Amino acid sequence: MMPGTADEGFYELRLYVAGQTPKSVAAFANLKRICEEHLEGRYQIEIIDLLERPQLAKGDEIIAIPTLVRRLPEPIKKIIGDLSNTEKVLVGLQLKPHH
């Protein structure tokens, strides 16, 4: 582990999508890349397709697609969109301090 990386801890991430739309595919690709770079070996991504399991949207109060939910570490955080803005995702997941 290099000094200056995010706090130790396991990240449990849940990505809500609706089918294999370009936006959903992009969100997953962006998330995977960010996790590989910043959370290597310390994350789990669960993809929930609301076309297949719409009832799961209620639990995390999903109102837009795609939405990334950080279940762990707490508090729960949500990021909406295709996650193409790496900076915004890092701040949203609290992997990077606000400036």
From TrEMBL:
Pfam families: KaiB (PF07689)
InterPro entries with a match to the protein in the record: KaiB-like, KaiB_domain, Thioredoxin-like_sf
SUPFAM superfamilies (UniProt xref): Thioredoxin-like
Top-level taxon of the source organism: Bacteria
Domain (KaiB): residue spans on this chain: 14-95
PANTHER family: CIRCADIAN CLOCK PROTEIN KAIB2, KAIB-LIKE PROTEIN 1
Protein name (record): Circadian clock protein KaiB
Organism taxonomic ancestry: Bacteria, Pseudomonadati, Pseudomonadota, Betaproteobacteria, Rhodocyclales
